[in-house]
Amino acid sequence: MLAILALILCLTLPLSVSASGTEADEPAETESADGSSGTKALAAAVVVGVAAAAGAVAMGLAIAKSVEGMARQPEASGKINSAMMLGLVFIETAIIYALIVAILIIFVL
To answer: Quick one: which of 89, 35, 81 has its CA closest to 73?
Structure first.
């Protein structure tokens, strides 16, 4: 979802313009002041920022609910704790995937 948002952001911002004032057919060898590197940086920042914020909120909610569950049923704290850790790993994996997408946006696109 975040990757699609970043790609849309990269593709909808203005294309590079050649010296004659028309859109360039081929990308320039070096990125000039046309804003393409700024667009990539903005897209990468959006991807990582949204993913990190959503992941932090999700982790906080998961920990709060698991502590609440352990307080209600102390005998099930082992199972609750391992399920919470597994969920936190999945949340962190999604954040790392967003970081990888941001790196790909910066260096590949």
So the answer is: 81
Residue 92 falls within a domain, yes or no?
A: yes
Please give the mean pLDDT across all residues of the chain.
79
What are the phi and psi torsion angles at 31 (to 5°)?
A: -80, 125
pLDDT tens string 27-51: 544 544 455 788 888 888 888 999 9
Q: What amino acid is encoded at 56 in this protein?
A: A
Q: Which domain holds residue 98?
A: 2-10+34-107
Side-chain half-sphere exposure of 105, counting CA atoms within 13 A: 29
Q: What is the CATH number of the domain that holds 87?
A: 1.20.20.10
